[in-house]
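Example 4.3 (complexes with small molecules)
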Amino acid sequence: MSDRTIVIVGSGQAGGWAAQTLRSDGFDGRVVLIGDEPHRPYERPPLSKAVLAGDVHPDTTYLQKSEAFDALNLDWRPDVSATRIDRAAKRLHLSRGEPIHYDSLILCTGGRARRLGIPGSDLPGVFTLRSIGDAAALGAALVAGKRLLVVGGGWIGLEVAATARKKGLDVTVVEAMGRLCERTVPAEISSYLLRLHTAHGVQVELGAGIEQLAQGPGEELTATLGDGRKLACDVVLFGVGLIANDELAREAGLACEGGVLVDSQCRTSDLDILAAGDVAVWHCDWAYRRMRLESWQNAQEQGIAAARAALGTTVNHQPLPWFWSDQYDVNLQIFGVPTPRHQVVVRGDVDSNSFVMFFLDADKVAAALGPNAARDLRFARRLIERRTSVDPQQLAELQVPLSKL
Ligand SMILES: Cc1cc2nc3c(=O)[nH]c(=O)nc-3n(C[C@H](O)[C@H](O)[C@H](O)COP(=O)(O)OP(=O)(O)OC[C@H]3O[C@@H](n4cnc5c(N)ncnc54)[C@H](O)[C@@H]3O)c2cc1C
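Answer. The structure with flavin-adenine dinucleotide bound is encoded below.
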């Protein structure tokens, strides 16, 4: 039996996969899993969708069934925070209990939802959404007939808007930028999302910053926009991005850049410390730049890769980035990282409910995305991964099956 101790900080999706991989790859030493939530590892995507809608119980999000989790034989510490890394002594200090010695440390601390620093942002009717606890609190507030104000027209905000409409609330989305999901998708997709939400009765205000929230005793919440307009509402959700939980790493002197810097083996600037998931910043060869990916796929695959690297296996974490979002009856998927420098080829009609946009780098597909196009996107993914040379005209031609390319 190995006398090594591997400590994982953060029992979210990446941490859960790291722990499971250590065992499935045969590590029989001590695995300590530290998590500041009361739950065993779970997946977050349903929190803005089926869990928030009340269609499924939060327990359905757990990565492992309880027997399978127990069988991993972990030293699991729920409700405990890691507070300091002593790199010289290879010890991790905790909010409760003795410090723990580690041989390898895997940081899977994810991130926390940003709250705007405006007056009234901590009023009782104002929420963020990151955890099962957040989904329970927000879900209870989303009562039919109430008015929800979503601050931020990004993925979380739009998914919550769609779920709230399904639950019968009046919904307004205010977005400070000129279009929805501006940072991640091209203008055609922003327009598609705008049409989708407007058709479902959501009021969308673009280029509208929020200045303050206020509520007198027994009064409704009032939001004041940058142009002075006032919006009355009952519930507010901030969907304004994520802050990487990299303080532990920064205070320990590890290289950080809006997250913990890792190489393609998930190693930080200290070779005994690895990082994975939403907290990790790595050079994505597909995008030719460093990035921090907030996606289900990356959390799982990087958690697995970090565990393997901790066991001494050579890994090369370079998955083709994949992200999806479900809103109403629309499933939108993005493979790769589209950029304005790519040549755009559209397959189908961007004004319809289903189409694919390809992003070409010379004669190769670098990225593809689209709503309700899972089958075509499956083939698009292969074209990207295999770096197949393509003819743009054939890509655009609906009569030519992508499988033929
Ligand atoms: C509402 C919602 C919907 C989403 N929908 C989608 C989707 O549709 N598609 C998609 O691809 N992605 C989606 N995502 C993103 C995806 O869920 C995340 O990328 C993924 O959860 C990241 O996993 P992680 O393990 O890196 O971080 P997390 O899951 O955040 O886990 C980190 C854990 O570490 C804990 N922690 C932090 N610091 C410490 C500390 N010092 N000590 C102990 N514990 C600590 C945190 O509390 C947390 O439990 C969604 C995310 C959210 C919140």
